[in-house]
């Protein structure tokens, strides 16, 4: 119990630090092409990317940079041997906590896509992680909770993954780049990216977590790690996937 309360306090503290004191600018090394579709009915391929806050520092303050964003998307996929098409439509999803101090940065992206709607669209998804380490819950209860994850998990990763998969696989009149990110591109982004590779590639939890840690350059925050681990248990016990969730 004490351990969980401690993590809860740590979570609130780091949330405050993240949102109030740290400014994150776009970082090329946080960008990765995660998946691409086969050729869809419109003849195009759609792409899924993770990254971080697509803003730059200017003399006028923090600004959204479409050019830098496209540069990071192109170069990172190129480094993975995939060339993006000349023209594409960005579906930009910012993973947020849903607190008011996030609004100014949200507005930067929202305003850009509102003014340049042929280049893409913008939306937000509240992403918090979970406050309970699944291994802290006795195994039989844990399995029951994993099975009804859709009923209680705030981030509802089962539904979220279906939604992202559907967006990714929907043909539009241009190739689509589905791009999700938070500020750092580490914790909330790590939770969502790990969930995707477990669900659609069958990666084990630890493999997904190691990949997150490599990109973040540090372990991801416990709440986001537990969120992904609960989702892994859902895949194992609800969808009967053969997956190692590092559960004891
Ligand atoms: C992307 O590649 C171009 C061409 O090599 C280079 O000029 C640019 O700096 C790179 N951008 C990033 C963000 O790495
Ligand atoms: C986005 O829209 C603004 C306002 O219409 C325009 O000034 C700007 O050049 C557009 N940006 C891009 C990258 O097309
Ligand atoms: C997540 O973002 C997508 C894209 O903006 C949106 O369609 C969806 O309704 C959002 N889901 C939630 C639960 O906020
Ligand atoms: C989920 O399952 C647990 C264990 O069976 C149960 O205690 C809990 O009430 C269920 N929660 C919801 C929201 O269905």
From TrEMBL:
PROSITE patterns: TYR_PHOSPHATASE_1. Keywords: Signal. SUPFAM superfamilies: (Phosphotyrosine protein) phosphatases II. Gene3D superfamilies: Protein tyrosine phosphatase superfamily (3.90.190.10). The keyword ATP-binding does not apply. Residues 1-22 form the signal peptide. PANTHER family: PHOSPHATASE, PUTATIVE-RELATED (PTHR38745), TYROSINE SPECIFIC PROTEIN PHOSPHATASES DOMAIN-CONTAINING PROTEIN (PTHR38745:SF2). This is Tyrosine specific protein phosphatases domain-containing protein. It comes from Tieghemostelium lacteum.
